Amino acid sequence: MEISVTRDVFRLAEVFTISRGSRSEARVLTVHVSDGGHRGWGECVPYARYGETLDSVEAQIAGLPGDVTRAALPGLLPPGAARNAVDCALWDLEAKRAGKRVWELAGLAAPGPEVTAFTLSLAAPEAMEAAARRNAHRPVLKIKLGAGADDMARLEAVRRGAPDARIIVDANEGWSAGVYAELAPHLLRLGVALVEQPLPAGEDEALSGMERPVPVCADESCHDRASLPALKGKYDVVNIKLDKTGGLTEALALREAARAEGYGVMVGCMVGSSLAMAPAVLVAQGAAYTDLDGPLLLAEDRDNALTFDDAGVHPPGAALWG
Q1: Statement: residue 132 has pLDDT above 80
Q2: Rounded to a whole number, what is the distance in angstroms from the first to the last CA of the chain?
Q3: Which are the catalytic amino acids?
């Protein structure tokens, strides 16, 4: 089997900002696997927060043996972007070989559309209010906070701009336990449904046993099933991202393990193309929260891109993936 990697760049529709910085394009790695008769592909987004670069992830993939299988991958690569792209490419290859869809091979029910959140970039309150007004028709808005004293002003502005939307707040590790406790009554007042990763992943012990009137979701603190024991008593929901789990295989296993332990499930994404979102749509079936808006933030996308409409994000067609 042949494994090849290309680097692709997708322009964003507008500059995207979180508390860690800004970007104007999505830089991704595309992995192709071929057995000579069939060809599968997958995408990953290396993330600096986890010590990944395009170079480091490409080197991990280049070191794989040509006869690699999905079953062998966890012993060859750690959870992360490299394993994700290869795992998803192998799923796509298997589906094409079998003449079936991935969800059939995985023993899943045929998927349908899932309502997805739409993310508002971190900006000044007046700019975020204007963005909220432009997107007030969307049922769920996710807003980036965690940048300091103006967070409440930003949240108030978004609520003015989109009075009927369900709101998810993503602090991107930018708060402390004290800030969460101070803001929680205001979050409730403004109808915030969920707070994502308020504290740094290495400092989230402060959440243990703490009253959480607004549910708290683990993002940077949750990568794969091995993360779950450390989350007990701290979090109510886990955010499953394929670039953290290392692909669809572990994402599906994490989903079932998290539900068995009583966690709500959110399925999220890095900023990538429809190819990166396609397998995540399968994981998002029945999730409490879906955040697969990556393609909506792009000025350009893959051919045969995912469909987004009033029903949400639709499963991929076979021409895209799976």
Answers
A1: yes
A2: 18
A3: 144, 241
